[in-house]
Amino acid sequence: MPEPDSACRKPGTVFAGHPLLTARLKLRALSEEDVPRLVELLDDAEMVRYTALIPHPYTEADGRRFVATQVERCRQGIGAALAMERSCDGRLIGCIGFGTEHDGTPELGYWVARDAWGQGYATEAMRRLIRHLFQDLGQSRVWASAAPDNAASRRVMAKVGLVDAMGESPVAVLARADWQAAHAARPMLLVVAAALLDADGRVLMASRPAGKMMAGLWEFPGGKVHSGETPEQALVRELAEELGIDTSESCLAPLAFASHDYDTFHLLMPLYVIRQWGGIPTAHEGQQLRWLRAGRLRELPMPPADIPLVAILREWI
């Protein structure tokens, strides 16, 4: 790996092995352990129909060669291929990356496993990688191309702002200034969350139910602050709706807050600690509930905004 202080290849970048988190994905460096999964997914003619560089049939030797090549490209700082790892179950469902070999401008590329098609993963990963290229690596523009009959990829390119993705040209470009303008216009979402502590010092965590964004991940209970509400009023309402408990007379002690960029919106989330409430917490919205010691919260897959709060809570408890 490059030295931490060498040019843009510093801690916090993909060149230094730093993963990129999205709402549902971890974009991380590939390793030899990924080879069997790569073969499982890519030894499929339909999967590689629109790709130029993926061979068919796809063998373990191909997988090992691909991983080794990406490690070397990353070491040289000329590109990176990242595994799309689904946060809820840790499964590799695709790859996304970029290369600067053409003219120094990053060319974007990706593929997604067949059983994950049509679920927005490519768009989500592309948005996060583009932000990294502009904000952290200082690139001035990025580009991608897709075959005229590859409608799915052309839609993804259009969604992330690549110009001419729906025109006749197979090549589409996004300049940093255009990305910055669109990114600055994203909404700010205020939500509120609670760390409910029982008499044994355990924390209540709730899963996001099927059908909701980030389904399968675990979070602190809470929800959106409605217009005209204070965060405290919203928290009392949300906990009554989600868990059937009364916190209207509870001491709502703010502990910390999360400020996280989800690319399509920016999340601001204060976390309140609550030790007393009326009623027994019960799942009212199809979620699962678990009481855990603060030291075990890291065992749960969480939305990226919740993760920094765990360390703060663990130290405070």
Shape estimate: elongated
Distance between the termini: 38 Å
Output the number of helix runs.
7
Query: Largest sheet, if any?
Result: 5 strands, antiparallel
Percent of residues in helical segments? Answer: 25-40%
Strand content range: 25-35%
**Which sequence of SSEs, written as H and E, runs from N to C?**
EEHHEEEHEHEHEEEEHEEEH
Q: Please list the strands of the largest sheet in the order they lie side by side.
A: 1-2-3-4-5
Spans of at least 5 consecutive residues with low confidence: 1-10
Query: What class would the helix/strand composition place it in?
Result: alpha+beta
> What Rg is obtained from the alpha carbons, in whole angstroms?
22 Å
Task: Count the E strands.
Answer: 14
Mean pLDDT: 92
Structure commentary:
The structure is a single chain. Helix content is 26%, strand content 26%. It has 317 residues and is of the alpha+beta class. The protein is elongated. It starts with 19 loop residues before the first strand and ends with a helix. The N terminus is likely disordered.
Characteristic key phrases:
single chain, 317 residues, alpha+beta, five-stranded antiparallel β-sheet, 26% strand, elongated
Tell me the layout of helices and strands:
Layout: E1 20-21, E2 25-29, H1 35-42, H2 60-76, E3 79-86, E4 92-99, E5 107-112, H3 121-136, E6 141-145, H4 151-159, E7 171-175, H5 176-184, E8 188-196, E9 202-207, E10 218-219, E11 222-224, H6 231-243, E12 253-261, E13 266-274, E14 289-293, H7 307-316
Parallel strand pairs: 8-13
Antiparallel strand pairs: 1-2, 2-3, 3-4, 4-5, 6-7, 8-11, 9-10, 9-14, 12-13
